Structure formats: structure tokens, C-alpha cells
Amino acid sequence: MADFALPRMYGIPYDPRQPTSEYRKYSHPDKQSVSFWSSCAIIAEEETENNLSTLLRSLPPNTLGMHAPSSNLVNNGSLPSTASFRVTRGIVHGQEILEALDRHSGSLRRLVFAKLGPGALSALNQLRNCNALEILSLGASDVNADFDFARSETAVYDQCVEWLRGCYQLKDLSLLRFPSGTQLLKDSLAGPKLRLKSLTLVEVGASAPWYHELHHQAKLECLEVHVPDLGLLALGPASGRCQDLAAGISRCPELTELHAEDYLSVGDISKISEGALKLERISFSGTLVHDEHLMPLANLPRLKEVHIMGDSSFTASGILRFFDKMEGNADHDHRGFSFSAAFQQGTLFGLKEDMRLREAAERAFGGNVTFTYVDSDGEDYYGERPNPNRFLGSP
């Protein structure tokens, strides 16, 4: 067995911050060799794309991989099931790499593109044969922020929808600032073969009501929704998006982890808590999140973590009521419970109440409470991991 580092002659720069990429060659007992690319994490630069695609084409078909073959490779000649290709930094500008990856569509299981440029987006349908993927992450470069992929590249978009709907092994899907990403989800989630366990969405531009299709993903366990556009985020409650998102989440019975960077109301939290009863971890945003947001969460029998990302105005007595309600359900398991708030109004309670809450969490659940306090101008009283001995609020 011999290992060869990816040669500089292919124009692929070495980055010490990324896992080492290797081109490996293994010999079978029958003297035939199987070559594949190991731990592929590269910087994509426009001038290197042709060289990279040439390298991908030079490999035997369906031999792109990540780990050394197990004994099964020697015994039956099969390839490892962890074939992976990742471009984690830089922009993929053209279609050459996508076309070359089609040569390995039968072995690819993990595919990650951090930033696809306009040319690559226009050729995304070249990946339509990669339907055995288990993990897929698609991001777009910032220049595509206003690009309407669904309308501008209709034929390509339609083929991408059919591609996702047919990915029968796909478990983990991420769309990160992907143009028309919400529309792509809306059109794909109902696919009869698509059964996700994890879905991550960073919304950009106009939002299509993708959450109406969430009920088709009954096996979904983890959902992350981020809304970096402050205008879209603020419009959420008024547009009914948050209410509909909560309704969609409530129809995911296997959901254990939810991160929603959205302004969820008390009613939204109640809706989610009624349907997603297996939730263990939840984080959400909002404007002046208060005690009543917490009370519905006490009905979740396995709740282990609550993190509030928005401005909060909790009271010590309200949080203690929340703890009491959780403790009152004898058949619930909240061991190790953690509660944190990133932007708590610092004038609502002082050091004694802070310590009392910490002691209550420790006593009831073996858990902890963490606040980052802010003043009326939004300035931190202290850093990300607050120390109550440095608290400057009311005594």
C-alpha cells in the first residue's frame, strides 16, 4: 500500500488549516489497483479548477473516497461507503468540477460546496446522477444574493428539484445562503424518496413557504433555520411566516433538536411543544422573550437545553416557576438541563437571584443557568461566559 500527497503540479495549494488531502492507491490480491482521493478539503481558485477537474477525470470511475478501505474492499472489491468531496473555502466558478464529479456519482456519499459561483449554479444539474448521497451541503457566493435561481435557470432548477426528490439515501441537507433555497425546499421536501434526518437552512432573499412541506419529512430529527436578513427576520411575525413555521415544526414527531433564528411567539412555542414531543434542545430568537415563552416547554418530557438568542426580559420568579413545572412531571427526564439567554435585560434581577437560579438548576436537574446581561443600550455587562461575581446590575 502506498500513499501519495496531492501533487502541486495540479495547481492545488496546500492549506495547513485544512485536513491533508491525499491521493491513495491500493492494490487488490488480483493485482488490480483501486485509487481514490482521501479527505478532500481544498481551496478552489478559478485558475486551478481546470487542473482539479482534470485530476478528478483521471481517477477511475466511482473511486472518490475519504477513508482507507476496510477488509471488505480486499474481500469483495467494493469501495468504502464514505466517498466524499468537499470544497470548504473559495468559490467554484465554472462547471468543469461538477462535470468531473459526475464520473464518480456512483460512489459519492458526501458532497459539500461552501460557495458556488453563477457559472457553477447554471451547471448544477450536472450532479443529477449523484442520487446516493447521504450528506449534501450547498452554499453560494455573495454575488448571488439577488440571483433568482428558480426563475433564471428554469430548466436547470427543475432538474435539481428532481435530483433532490430522488436522493433516496440523503439524511443531511444544508442550503446556506443558496439562491431560491426556500423554493427548492418547497418543491423537493414532498419527494417520495427523500427522508431527511437533518435540515439546515440559511435563508436569503424572498422566502417561499417551504415549511408547509415539512410534514413530509416525518423522520426529521434536527432542524436549523437561520435568517441573516434583518428585514426578512423582522417581517416574519407580521407575514405569518413564524406561525406557519411553528405549525410545520409541530408535524415533525421525531424532532429532537431545533434552532430557529426567528421571532417565535408564545403561541408558536405552544404549537411546537404540542407536536414535537421528542424535542431535547431548542433555541430561538425574538423581541423581549419573557417568562411565558418558557412555560409550554415544560411539557416536553426530554427537554435538556434551552437557549434564547433574542432580547429577553425573564424574571427570576418566572424561571423558577418554569423549573417547578418541569420537576412536577415525575415521568420526565431533564437531567443535565441547561438554560441560557444571550441578551437578558440586566436590570431585572441581581446577583442574589442569579445565584439562586443556578442553585435551583443544579439541585433539580444537575444542570446550569447562564445569562449574558445587557443594559438598555444593548451593551454587554460582561462577556459570553458570565461570572456572577462581576455582575453590575441591581443588588
Automatic annotation (TrEMBL):
Domain of life from the UniProt record: Eukaryota
InterPro entries in alphabetical order: LRR_dom_sf (IPR032675)
Name the record gives this protein: WGS project CABT00000000 data, contig 2.5
Lineage, highest ranks first: Eukaryota, Fungi, Dikarya, Ascomycota, Pezizomycotina
